[in-house]
Amino acid sequence: MRYVLPVIIMLLAVCCLRAQPATHGNNLIDVDGHVINAHGAGVLYYNGVYYLFGEIKKGATWFVPNQSWEDYRVPAGGISCYSSTDLSHWKYEGVALPAITGDATSDIDTGRVMERPKVVYNSLTKKFVMWLHIDKNDYSYAHAGVAVSDQPAGPYTYLGSVKPNGQDSRDMTLFKDDDGKAYLIHASEGNNTMQICLLTDDYLSPSATYSRVLVNRNREAPAMFKSRGRYFLITSACTGWSPNAATYAVADSPLGPWKEQGNPCTGPNAETTFNAQSTYVLPMDEKGSRFLFMADIWNKTDLPGSAYLWLPLQVDGDTVTIRWIDQ
Ligand code: GAL
Fold first, then answer.
1. What is the number of alpha carbons within 13 Å of residue 156 lying toward its C-beta?
2. How far is the centre of ligand 1, averaged over its atoms, from the C-alpha of 7 (Å)?
3. Of the chain's two ends, which shows fewer C-beta atoms within 10 Å, N or C?
């Protein structure tokens, strides 16, 4: 009998110490107990380690008046990096690409927009290459910025920004194919069209090869992935920080043609992507059937309070399903 109480205490302690499953809408916590600050994120998987890159959102949220949409902003905080071997325990690696202060002409000044960073590894140059959305507070600049590093977690050196082939680039993502080719996928033409641009072999510039897809569909928040030789592109509609229904498209090649399908989400609030917006799809196995759908639960009037939604995504033939689960 005298052993019962210590055993119960031990069992309770073990239960408390076990990592708790993340609950959507609560912020993710890193191994030091700090809230993970990595919004509009992407993941690089390199040498058995997942590197999570995202927008650092801190400071007061303010409203930019006289815009055609609800333009809530925080200062550009730079890009953070976290690493993990199990997608559950995340170690803060530091600021991968800092924002600078006091130079309004710089792309990466805190007065600008630095959003949706994505990183790929270039095995020819042995460099890690980051692309991100660079803009002004009224989103009139519409550039894609590029930065480079010798190490996955950075620090990254900012190289500058472009309008790929003279075209607008707002919400964007990267996709690296099995043949080593990498693509910049970006909302363009005033967000009317998605453009998919083959990057040069060093991934540092857009090539002249690009296609216009989802024409006049007004999509953003692109996330591309590949399953069993087929390509999939999830996007959101354009409603600023407010959630809307995701849709997906399927193709035989990254440049298209793309065939639009419906909403991949099922369950409560499927018509608002479970109150979130797509940012990345991470492959979880070699077979190409299990993926992690990563999205942002934006809090538009308190942007640093925005949270994350990570759900399993399944592919069956040409059908993509993201089913709601509580944790
Ligand atoms: C969203 C976009 C976000 C951010 C926001 C600004 O539509 O997906 O990344 O740019 O607009 O209002």
1. 34
2. 52
3. N
